[in-house]
Specification:
KRTCAP2; Protein KRTCAP2 homolog; membrane; 5 helices; transmembrane; transmembrane helix
Length: 130
């Protein structure tokens, strides 16, 4: 079920704060093994995803539905998620970066398939005179 931009803004902001605080609360568990460190990087990439959603919905609320995310919002979301993962472990920062870039690729791909306007091509055959 789809929600409005305002509700999505609130939900993604709350999920970002909850995920960040959960990462800080379970920091000792997240650094206890190699697999948990990678999980910490994945959780950091989820912070990236939720922050990107929050920024996109904030701009949709303030500037209208046709406004799109630009590169500075993506970099801000990425930097915040990398810092959140860096507070856990250095390897979690690296895995967060990798997971975030992969997520950004698929988000862009889905967005292009959903919102791109395809222009129908018209073939015009011209007869050549001899």
């Amino acid at each position: 079920m789809a929600v409005t931009s305002k509700v999505s803004l609130i939900l993604s902001s709350i999920l970002t704060v909850l995920l960040f605080s959960g990462m800080q609360m379970y920091k000792t568990w997240l650094i206890s093994s190699k697999l948990h460190i990678i999980l910490g990087g994945y959780m950091g990439s989820l912070i990236f995803l939720f922050l990107l959603t929050a920024f996109g919905n904030l701009e949709a609320v303030l500037f209208g539905k046709s406004f799109q995310l630009k590169l500075p919002e993506v970099f801000i979301s990425l930097i915040v998620s990398l810092v959140a993962s860096g507070l856990i472990h250095r390897v979690a920062t690296t895995t967060c970066f990798i997971f975030s870039i992969v997520a950004l690729y698929y988000i862009n791909r889905i967005s292009q398939e959903t919102y791109s306007m395809s222009v129908p091509t018209v073939n015009i055959h011209m007869k050549k005179k001899k």
